[in-house]
Amino acid sequence: MAESDGSGDFFSPRGSGSARSRLSLPSASRNGSVSQRRQRRLSGGLGRPPASEKGDEEDEEEEEDEDDGEEPESERPRPPGSSEGGGDERHRRLIRNQYRELICSVQQNREDMLSSKSNRLTEALEEANQLFSGVSRAREAALDAQFLVLASNLGKEKANELRSEITTFDSLTFAEDLLTFMGINRTETEGNDSDSESMSGGYLPSNAWYKLGEEAEKYFRRAPSFHYMLGSFKSEPPMPRQRIERQRKAPGGEEKRAMPAQLKKMEESHQEATAKEVERILGLLQTHFRNDPCTPIFFFDLVVDPNSFARTVENIFHVSFILRDGLARLKLDDDKLPVIEPVQNVEERNDDHSARARNQVVISLSHEEWRV
Amino acid sequence: MRAERSGLREGDDEDFSVVPTQSPSQVQRNLESRSQEEINRKVTELVQFLLVKDQKKIPIKRVDILKKVIREYKDVYSEIVNRAGRTLQQVFGLQMVEIDTKHHIYILTSTLPRVEGENLKQDIQTAKLGLLIVILSFIFMKGNSAKDSAVWEFLRRLRVHPGEKHEVFGDVKKLVMEEFVRQKYLEITPIPLTDPPEFNFQWGPRAAKETSKKDILSFVAKMQKKEPSFWISQYNEAKANT
Fold this sequence. Notes:
- The complex is a heterodimer.
- Chain A is mainly alpha-helical.
- Chain A has helices spanning 5-8, 12-23, 32-47, 53-74, 86-108, 110-114, 120-132, 138-163, 171-182, 208-216, 238-291, 299-303, 309-324, 346-355, 367-371; strands at 297-298, 328-332, 338-342.
- A three-stranded antiparallel β-sheet of chain A has the order 1-3-2.
- By secondary structure, chain B is α+β, with helices and mostly antiparallel strands.
- In chain B, 49% of the residues lie in helices and 14% in strands.
- Chain B has helices spanning 24-33, 36-53, 62-70, 77-92, 124-141, 148-156, 172-182, 205-210, 213-224, 232-241, and strands at 60-61, 94-100, 105-110, 146-147, 165-166, 170-171, 186-191, 198-203.
- In chain B, the strands form three sheets. Chain B has a three-stranded antiparallel β-sheet. In chain B, strands 4-8-7 form a three-stranded antiparallel β-sheet. A two-stranded antiparallel sheet of chain B has the order 5-6.
- In chain B, strand 7 (186-191) and strand 8 (198-203) form a beta hairpin.
- Chain B is elongated, with a radius of gyration of 21 Å.
């Protein structure tokens, strides 16, 4: 009979190893009859040659049931004044913790244990076997029995899968294939965990489940959810029509009124801010000129803010107001670089207003140029 | 004449039926006492009722249909239901399917063949369907039933954990164990004498009506890039099921 690694070895190591270790239990620590009965049953069940797996499992199961029933009895209260020191207690606690961990890990990785390719179940059994060698009291032995129940159930399932014609469905690869379909981005640098149950690493995109759902819809005859486009189930037809007409007329007038009011406000605040800025820059210009009347200022020196492109553009914007209002003049100097100078006297200003040729200049300044 | 087919037929009488048994001639007579307009109005109401009730995919009870829509028109119940069924089919391509013949509970399913790329609206229901199909696949491939610990372990490999809030599904445990069960997609039964309590997962009646073992096997085969016949016993089972 073809045996997979896992279930084939199920009986032999446990049988030989544990039979030996259990018989060496000091019988002084608990009720003699109970422990002997337990030992006999356990070693009897396991020591039997695996002639027919099915037969074994059934017996095992019966024994486990009885075993569980027996458990509370073997928890005898320790005689007071027991000579065990704290170290021993710690050791026992350690064993109990290890058992619990083992049980937990087996429960969490059922599928892995069941897989015919894995030896995990045997390994777990061996680990429990080793732990058992340190057990001397009922409490830890109870945990061991609990583990045994778990392991034997798994063993039974594993054997079932071998026996039946169901082509073993490998859920692990199925999960991997699903992840692939959902568009998982598997990274190369995954640390290799020693245990085979480590999940494949990678980044699952946010639309993963939507993508899978879209594919899933092809296999369902689901009625699409029905939703009214316009409103709730209870809406009455005649009312909305009137309301719609009324609404259509009303917003027209109101909106127009609302708009200008808003705009006016915005413009005002904008203008205020702009005006202030403009005045400030004008003030700067004039101050500079007062100090140094003969040197016109390079336009770009004035407007360019070495730290902020946005500020630079803003500055140009403000300066343009000054120019428009005729409060300053933009000229090209000998090097054909633009320079700016404030207009000095009031009369000139007034004259210019009418006679001045209005030139429009478009300055283009790209981010790159600004950086330079 | 009692037919086995799904859908409502007059004469559906079980223990606590609220509908009196009616022969076709009785129904005719009752019909004549009402105006066409009245009956049609009831038919329309019933269609609307069914469509709205189906939004959340919670199955619809006949008791509710009688209480909330049919009311005093109970005597022509079967006629109303038949006409409503016709409207559902002709206008929407849907049909009423009975998933519980004892308590008379219905769902709506689509009778139209799926068309490639037809779903323009991808919402959370789409994502939930993705989760559902993997659970149904797992259950079927494992022999039509699976223990909850096995199902959750499988889902863990897809980054879905019952204890954690999932970025798409939120409270996954609630979704799987309550919503899907209420919608009759899944049937979850406790296994006796287990402590802590364990559960058995199976397909629910809605799953059986909205999809099939053959469909799900095709899905699995497509994901794994194999032929459905690769899994011999599941394949045979699916074939026998149609």
